[in-house]
Amino acid sequence: MARITASVYTSHVPAIGAAMDLGKSTEPYWQPLFAGYDFSKQWIKENTPDVIFLVFNDHATAFSLDMIPTFAIGTADQYTPADEGFGRRPVPTVYGHPELAAHIAQSVIQDDFDLTIVNKMEVDHGLTVPLSLMFGERDPVKGGWPCKVIPFAVNVVQYPVPSGQRCFNLGKAIRKAIESFDEDLNVQIWGTGGMSHQLQGARAGLINKEFDNAFLDQLIADPAAAAKIPHIDYVREAGSEGIELVMWLIARGAMADQKLETATAQHAPTVKHRFYHVPASNTAVGHLILENN
Ligand code: DHB
Ligand code: FE
Predict the structure, then answer these.
(1) For position 11, what pLDDT does the model report?
(2) Which domain holds residue 182?
(3) How many structural domains does the chain have?
(4) How many angstroms does the Cα of residue 191 sit away from the middle of ligand 2?
């Protein structure tokens, strides 16, 4: 059977990808940010999964404002990194897992979550920057990413966006789907985006360290409570783009402790790594690695 072994959470700031692609990661501005991922690169080398179920948001790249799916699952066998206006990032093509993705779609849709099936999609910084942060620089031709990736896109760009509670419940349905796939696969689920940031309007540049760290604490210890945070609190406290954090609840809902009726601290996943850094471009960067016990 397939099983979820760990979840990874990370911001996806596009300037991080640009810093890597342009050889700037050792510059004083960027060095402390990348240092926070040194542990993670070693950890993932020792814990490379077969498949990453990667929850991310598209930034009007693959989906224009013409068509906006709330939840979209990638069922293709490959995904090309998108040109977001500065040329394609020099990173490898992302290879999918169509069989597992189709199985998850079947199971989750039967569990009453309406997913959009995506058979062709280019992937933007929301997906490629987390891969780069965890796996480091990879030669687009000779390197390749070391595992398959199922992209799962969530609309957090155009209101109405899904609630934290719905994302959390969806995570539970995704766990059930993965655990019922009849092949012995090691799967990780990643929640990406966030933390506090606002890119527009009078409050552009907003960062809220207190909110972010309280969110990390609650996501680890009491995710059911974090799932109850209403949209307005994300927007007020973490800025208009802080709403990306609802995606972290999908990954957290898929962790093993959440399948128990009463999850206690004793069942909680192990925190392998926690990192928080300000600033990266306009964004507060948060990062967690949680392992199932
Ligand atoms: C920035 C952050 C984002 O999440 C994004 O999608 C685009 C830009 C930024 O901090 O510049
Ligand atoms: Fe973003």
Answers:
(1) 98
(2) 3-291
(3) 1
(4) 12
Q: Identify whether the C-beta of residue 256 lies closer than 8 Å to the C-beta of residue 269.
A: yes
Is residue 168 very low, low, confident or very high in pLDDT (cuts 50, 70, 90)? very high
57 closest CA partner among 4, 119, 108, 130: 130
Q: For a pocket test of ligand 1, which of 11, 13, 278 has the largest count of ligand atoms closer than 8 A to its C-beta?
A: 13
Task: Report residue 36 as tokens.
Answer: 């926070």
Predicted TM-score of the model (pTM)? 0.98
Cα distance between residue 71 and residue 169, in whole Å: 13
Mutate to test the pocket of ligand 1, among 199, 200, 203, 278 (most ligand atoms within 8 A of CB): 199
| pLDDT tens, residue by residue, 229-272 | 999 999 999 999 999 999 999 999 999 999 887 777 778 899 99
> Which DSSP helix (H) or strand (E) runs through 186?
strand 186-192
| pLDDT, tens digit, 9 for 90 and up, residues 35-54 | 999 999 999 999 999 999 99
Q: At what angle do helices 38-46 and 125-135 cross, to 10 degrees?
A: 80
